[in-house]
Amino acid sequence: MADASASMTLATISLIGFTLLAGFYLTTLNLRWTLVSVTVTAVLVTQLLRKLRRRDALTERRVCVLVLGDIGRSPRMQYHALSLSKHGYSVTFVGFPGTKPHQDVIGDERITIIPITEVKGLQVGPRMVSYVTKVILQSLQLLLVLLKTDVQSHILMQNPPGLPSIVVTWLVCGLRGTRFIIDWHNYGYTIMALSHGPDHPIVRLAQWYEQLFGRFSSHNLCVTNAMKEDLQNNWNIKATTLYDKPPAIFKETSVDLKHQLFMRLAKTIPQFQVCGERPGGETERTAFTGRDPSDLSVTLTSGRPALLISSTSWTEDEDFSILLKALEDYEGFVKAGASLPSLVCVITGKGPQKDHYRKLIDTLSFEHVKICTPWLEAEDYPVLLGSADLGVCLHKSSSGLDLPMKVVDMFGCCLPVCAIHFYCLHELVKHEENGLIFKDSEELSEQLKSLLWDFPGCEDEGKLGQFRRNLRASGGQRWDQNWDQNVLPLLTAP
Length: 494
Prior knowledge:
signal-anchor; transmembrane helix; six-stranded parallel sheet; chitobiosyldiphosphodolichol beta-mannosyltransferase activity; 494 residues; seven-stranded parallel sheet; endoplasmic reticulum
């Protein structure tokens, strides 16, 4: 039905174009042909709008969730889709394929994923030509995809990236009478400024584009109160703050589940194996856990290393040389005789700078610190967070106005963090309450030293234990309640 409607729409648009061209030619002949041309064009445009806006009984229960990026690496948009489904909406999820989405998204019969291709512009000539052609081709593809879907009550779009999706989505919403919601995760132009510089013409154009067309949405969501104020004060855009909150899957992991995960990881990741012991032996042991063959009980080993975890998109707003330098200092502390455990540092994620940092990691020669950079399935990631001893966040917002979702997930697992300072981080990380905030590698290394002193004896004592207790006591709102309070009223409003 949708494909047939899209074909009719394209045919009508083509006919309108032909009529306009013919009319332009015929107007040079006499006034009669001018009137005929205008009349035919008006009739065709009216018919087109009727087709585009044709609604049925289910239209108000359909929502499109759009991200011009990898769906599997867009957790907040996946949570939006799941929340919509729980409230009985049929969800069309449009985005790039790549990383496998969470199983709950894949298995939800109300969620239909429509993959779109990340197109490339012309690969010859100046970079500007390549960029412009990419935007044009991506716009045409997105326009066709959105017009092929059934009429939606709302389109909920992630920004960034907003070029060209804001304009295309606004156009489709205008043609079809659909309400347009932008979920502001950050500003696209500030991310572009990391590689091009703030004064580059493309960056200035992107800023103008976001500021102008961002005002055309029906509603706006954003991730912090600081961003809400910035949107209102500088761009005259009114937004509702929807803080990232962890879904129920992020929680502390039981010892049995830790062992099961560590056993799976030990098959391919040497850092999880017992030193000098091959996986798959007669005893079930990992670097952190062991199963007693007599009663099959699982315990954490007394001399285990501390498990440090950091997740990243390996982009320019995260400087992992800070962590590597801090680990180098930590190695020095242990060699100098400090009462500190060995460390296994797990850095998860995919991104453009991963190969660069892996090469740096390969040059390091540590005796007491081991580093691995695996990619985890969506189902394993929360289990690993709930199994870790300490989290590290190196996310520095390009705008200074968004918050790292990785810390939100860590707090859902009652995992204390050390996070690098930037403006508005205080909305999430409370220094000396649920974690520590640092400014450089030296400060981070000292924090690792103080938190892990006499580990694992300090696990339930000292600052590390105190932070865990505070996180448990604070509990906090989960995604579902937060979404119901802030987003559902926007969808049901007249």
